[in-house]
Amino acid sequence: MMVGSVKDSELQTITAVGKVSVTDDSTAILLGLLGFSATKLWNTAVWYSKETWKTTGKIPTYHDLDIVMKQEHPLWYRRLHSQSAQAVLEDLWQSYKSWYALRKKGDKRAKPPGYRRKTALSAVTFKQAAVQWDPRTSTVRLSIPKDIYDKQFLYLKVRMPYGYRFTNDNIQIGRLVYLKGVWYVHLVYKMLLPELKGNREAMGVDLGMVNMVATACTDGSTSLWLGGELAALERYFEKQKSKTTKSRSRKSFAQNQKRSRQRTHLLHSFTKSLVRDAEARGVSTIIVGTLKDIRTGKDWGDSGNQALHKWPFDRIVKMLTYKARLKGILVVDLNESYTSQTCSQCNTINKSSRVHRGLYVCNHCGAKINADVNGAVNILKRYLPEQISVSWSSGCLAQPAVNRFAWRKTRPATSAHKPGTWQTTLPHLRTESVMALSSCRV
Asked: Domain 201-438, what fold?
């Protein structure tokens, strides 16, 4: 597929989220009607799908849903722009397809899409032809049915974040979302990716749990990105979940949403900081150890297995890949087998050399290295051509820079709330003893 003269492989899909400024009652009422109509259309389509399933044993196709809702149940269909109504039915059809795929695999816990609360205001999607953006006034124009609302367009003043890069030519979708009493506009657009930086510095990345990431760069630097805050967040919400009596209760639903928001923020903040660090070091290529079969054959006990299966390895790689590409940095994956057992100094493979979680002591050459950094160095060395040699100081291998995520738990009454950020602690370089290495363990 081509967009103009540009290939899809050269484009990146980005979502910009802006807060809608609702200054008059008529706009607030109109927004509410759109969200309410989307909810009613969804519920009507769910009802029809359930009835069809009972009588025929089949799920109606999207085409059937569109015809029936338009001709036999037009009340709520006509209160949305035709493309917005179609988007609601497309979402429902995709939900049914996902449920049916799980059902065919034998997942008895999978449930079909259900009704939405009558008071809920659903998201309303506007496709490309129904969205226009005015950068001069920071106003988005959305198409609505003129025969219903006596006007063809809805104009909304939107506060967009700094640095957005969309225009009317590259906007693909607009989406109105209601969250905690506030309306937001999500504008999905495609932007041209920058050129790759070419052959410069390279960075090896070893994924883990205690340390989310250990890195080793060809400039001789190493660092750890701790996973303790993410693990603590998961433990906290698991305990809160155990206190709820019903998994589908409002309290459980609210906690799941809060958990998802905090987890997503932490991961976005982490990958953004990691890419910023790579960019500052002149890195053009990030090498990530492959995650294939990472959970196979491991038994860490009930709690350990639960944490392992919930750890977002794939999501970290996906976020890192697209954020790095926006900076002209290429992310490649590499087979990481035996990298944690191999000494990065003499290439001796010995599983027993990893004496505990944070320490690798080579039985052959006597090197004392942070265990996760040792894996990152081996990943990097495996990627580099043999004629290129990189030397790391014993201090960097033993005590790398440590990056911690700091939640802002309190705030002065006069200042705005700020989300958590990553903070770097540079260690004192001491490698004379195993005691020094033990202080690196996290």
From this structure: Nucleotidyltransferase; domain 5 (3.30.420)
